[in-house]
Design goal:
The chain is of the alpha+beta class. The protein folds into three domains: 185 residues, no CATH class; 122 residues, Roll (CBS-domain), CATH 3.10.580.10; 88 residues, Uridine Diphospho-n-acetylenolpyruvylglucosamine Reductase, domain 3. The protein has 18 helices and twelve strands. The strands form three sheets. Strands 8-9-12-11-10 form a five-stranded antiparallel beta sheet. Strands 1-7-6-5 form a four-stranded mixed beta sheet. Strands 2-3-4 form a three-stranded mixed beta sheet, with no helix packed on it.
């Protein structure tokens, strides 16, 4: 039985081969050759899509710095990615459509499926589609990903020619896609910062490091923080009087350990400039009469309501690390440094001159009770308890510190041991003088 079955298959194969040979003409041969060439073209076009868009920035920089005509042509194509992609897609569609049409002609002339039309359609669809996908899409894209530079150099001139040949279609396709992009942008959802923070909390699992979560939240909130929320207030700033002699100046520098210090005349509202401590190094042996004011640099002033993401850009452009913060009347409110800005993303940055922030700004007594310095910013207060930044928006007014929040609520400096309930917190005044609230006990209401 097996011998008869094998023989029958062989007979069917011989009949098919003989039918193909009888139907085979010069026209069929040319058509098959043309399909073969179109498959190569389809493979090259499909591969070039992956090749161009998988080039690394360093590879693109090499082409940009080169004076070779082909390298400059590659850069011109990459400068218009939408036009390049439209050219590739249009060409690929033309080529694949041609393959389907010519393949249908070949099959129709080689085989007679009059009695079995469904079988004929299935064979054409399965064979031709598989051939286009495997030879014209999958294989070339895999190869192009591994050999992007070779394909890019090979296809740059061809794609430049095709972009000109199909310019009207490319233009229409790019313009229509731009219109769609604009409509999608208009219909896009406005996601608030608090919603983004909640998304980070939801997507952060137990295996996600706490520091990474804090950095992501810092990036999300970065563009919504004013300078006054992170600045060091004027009462905490170490500044230098322009009348200070050089010997006392060096003593203050050694005691404080700062690398930059504001310099003023008469009072802190009249800033003359910034003294860079490194500029003093060549003059350490000078006498007390040394005119050190000639070393100061111009001060950079910023308003209290400036966003810290904008300030960071200005720090980068001007290559400076410190700015003087001024209020609406031109008075000095404090200073803000590059370190203060970066700490809003990465957390506290402590060097050999810093004491851990936790020891300075607050002390945890137990799960529900904390001691805070009055000057602690509300921004830092929110971070300690993991609160949203709008918790006290209805009552804080223009205040940026815990002490300011209490003053805004009470309208006066409260006496020692006074307790004030705000939201889910009870604030008890622990230390106060005639000018400011120094220390506050915060109790969480369970």
């Amino acid at each position: 039985m097996e011998i008869l079955h094998t023989a029958s298959i062989g007979m069917i194969a011989l009949i098919l081969i003989s039918a193909i040979i009888k139907s085979f003409t010069l026209g069929i041969f040319v058509a098959i050759l043309f399909v073969f060439l179109l498959l190569i073209a389809s493979a090259l076009i499909s591969g070039s899509e992956n090749a161009f868009f998988s080039l690394t920035p360093s590879e693109i920089d090499v082409y940009r710095d080169s004076t070779a005509p082909k390298h400059q042509l590659i850069i011109r194509l990459l400068e218009k990615p939408k036009s390049l992609l439209a050219t590739i897609l249009i060409t690929n569609n033309f080529v694949n459509t041609s393959i389907v049409i010519i393949s249908t002609y070949i099959v129709a002339n080689l085989f007679d499926f009059t009695s079995f039309p469904v079988l004929g359609m299935l064979i054409q669809v399965v064979v031709i589609t598989s051939m286009i996908l495997f030879i014209g899409e999958i294989l070339p894209k895999v190869y192009a990903t591994q050999n992007a530079k070779k394909i890019v150099l090979l296809m740059a001139s061809n794609l430049h020619f095709l972009s000109r040949a199909f310019y009207p279609l490319v233009y229409i396709m790019v313009k229509s896609s731009s219109l769609i992009d604009k409509r999608i942008t208009k219909k896009g959802h406005n996601i608030s910062i608090s919603e983004l923070s909640n998304v980070i909390d939801i997507t952060s699992g137990t295996s996600t490091p706490k520091q990474e979560t804090q950095i992501l939240k810092g990036i999300v909130n970065f563009g919504d923080i004013d300078v006054k929320e992170i600045m060091k207030s004027r009462i905490d700033v170490v500044a230098m009087d322009s009348e200070t002699d050089f010997v006392n100046l060096l003593k203050i520098v050694l005691d404080t350990g700062y690398s930059r210090m504001p310099v003023y005349t008469e009072n802190f509202d009249k800033i003359d400039g910034i003294l860079y401590i490194k500029d003093l190094l060549p003059h350490l042996n000078e006498t007390k009469d040394f005119k050190w004011m000639q070393l100061i640099h111009p001060a950079f002033f910023v308003p209290e309501n400036k966003k810290i993401n904008d300030l960071l850009k200005e720090f980068q452009e001007k290559k400076i690390h410190l700015a003087i913060v001024v209020d609406e009347y031109g008075g000095t409110s404090g200073i803000v440094t590059l370190e203060d800005i970066l700490e809003e993303i990465v957390g506290e940055i402590n060097d050999e001159f810093d004491v851990a922030t936790e020891d300075i700004e607050y002390t945890k007594i137990d799960e529900y009770n904390y001691i805070f310095e009055g000057k602690t910013t509300l921004n830092d207060f929110y971070k300690v308890f993991g609160l949203e930044e709008k918790v006290f928006d209805d009552i804080k007014g223009e205040s940026d510190t815990i002490a300011g929040l209490i003053l805004e609520n009470q309208g006066k400096i409260p006496e020692k041991n006074t307790s004030i309930q705000l939201g889910n917190f009870i604030f008890r005044i622990e230390a106060v003088d005639s000018r400011r609230i120094k220390r506050i006990k915060v109790t969480i209401i369970p």
